[in-house]
Design goal:
44% of the residues are buried. The longest helix has 20 residues. The strands form three sheets. The protein has a six-stranded parallel β-sheet, sandwiched between helices. Strands 7-10-11-6-12-13 form a six-stranded mixed β-sheet. Strands 8-9 form a two-stranded antiparallel sheet. It is built from eleven helices and 14 strands. The two termini are 18 Å apart. It folds into two domains: 136 residues, NAD(P)-binding Rossmann-like Domain (Rossmann fold, 3-Layer(aba) Sandwich), CATH 3.40.50; 170 residues, no CATH class. It has 349 residues and is of the alpha/beta class. Helix 1 crosses helix 10 and helix 4 packs parallel to helix 5.
């Protein structure tokens, strides 16, 4: 469906995902970048294009939230490192839709859902959680594959990432995700994003289950660390021998006592770990639907040896959802409520 005018978009945060989103928004004639919020003083006043690594575009980034909320914009692509629910409610109440890769793909917490739903009603707008995983690989992709099956017994999603050369910040890698810590400290005081990850993966499992017509009865979560067997220089800094350089997460959704949905995640900074995890792809998602017939699908980047395509995937799944979310009914809208998200208008001609 063609738009009558370009949608005015505010990019909220300019980290690894936000920078790619700015580039995609500015090159799309269906979209107009109307504002950019940045977290740090160092970026304030800089040209948004310069921050994104593209040519200057004549739009200065700002930390003035009130000023941004006063802009007559259609949607905010909300991509900070950690989401602030109060901040999101202010954005929604100001009459701006939100698409975010920070989780919220299928909200079941009644208090959280009530806050966001109420803010949507005040502003007359919609809210949508997107991303690559959650947001695609662990929910939308297996739902598409499920259409090929007569019976489904179990769904497993395995994520493998070599994070050593990704462009994520040292704050993200070392402080928020726990790389470079001792295994004892990381287990004793889990970094901030660990708790968030449990929530967002359970949401994704719930959406997958809902799409398949049932509700999960419970969850399990297991997490193990692997430490470096030598000093490892990575993009985000130096990981010393004996520090955390690998992590394995296992999230399980249960139906009765059966394990019916499993998310397996392997994050590695090197092959030189004290645990032998047999997955070396730089970036790969494998979806297995066990049943009749069973189906396996692998999602990986072509001609890339880093995780950078995953950041592009995350950004583009959000950018391509902007128009459908702006057209959606008021309220919280999961992928089950929206039409198929496509790269409309992006085919090379």
């Amino acid at each position: 469906m063609a738009l009558e005018r370009p949608l005015k978009i505010i990019q909220w945060a300019t980290g690894s995902v936000g920078r790619y989103a700015i580039g995609a928004i500015t090159e799309d004639p269906q979209l107009e970048l109307a504002g950019v919020w940045v977290h740090g003083e160092a970026k304030e006043g800089q040209d948004a294009g310069t921050i994104a690594g593209i040519a200057p575009i004549g739009l200065e980034a700002t930390r003035d939230i009130d000023g941004l909320l006063a802009i007559d914009a259609d949607c905010v692509l909300y991509a900070p490192l950690l989401a602030d629910v109060g901040e999101m409610c202010r954005i929604l109440e100001s009459g701006k839709n939100i698409v975010t890769p920070t989780g919220f793909s299928f909200i079941k917490d009644p208090i959280l859902a009530s806050r966001l739903e109420s803010a949507c009603r005040v502003g007359g707008v919609s809210f949508h959680g997107s991303g690559i995983h959650p947001g695609f690989a662990g929910d939308r992709l297996p739902l598409v594959l499920s259409a090929l099956c007569r019976r489904i017994d179990k769904v497993t999603i395995r994520e493998v990432c070599d994070l050593s050369q990704g462009s994520e910040s040292p704050e993200m890698m070392m402080e928020q995700l726990g790389f470079g810590m001792s295994a004892e400290d990381a287990a004793k005081e889990p970094p901030a994003l660990m708790g968030v990850m449990s929530t967002i993966f359970y949401e994704s499992m719930d959406m997958l289950a809902a799409g398949l017509g049932f509700e999960l009865d419970g969850y399990e979560h297991h997490h193990e660390f692997s430490v470096a067997t030598r000093d490892i220089p990575v993009h985000a800094g130096m990981i010393q021998k004996g520090q955390v350089a690998g992590q394995h997460f296992e999230y399980i959704g249960k139906l009765g006592e059966r394990h019916v949905i499993e998310f397996q995640t392997y994050w590695k900074m090197s092959r030189d770990l004290d645990k032998d995890w047999p997955y070396d792809a730089p970036l790969e998602y494998t979806v297995e639907v066990e049943g009749d017939p069973s189906v396996r699908c692998t999602l990986s980047a072509i001609d890339s040896h880093t995780t950078e395509p995953g950041l592009v995937w995350t950004a583009m799944n959000c950018v391509n959802a902007l128009a459908p979310v702006c057209r959606a009914e008021v309220g919280i809208r999961s992928s089950l409520d929206l039409p198929i998200i496509c790269a409309t208008g992006r085919f090379a001609t």
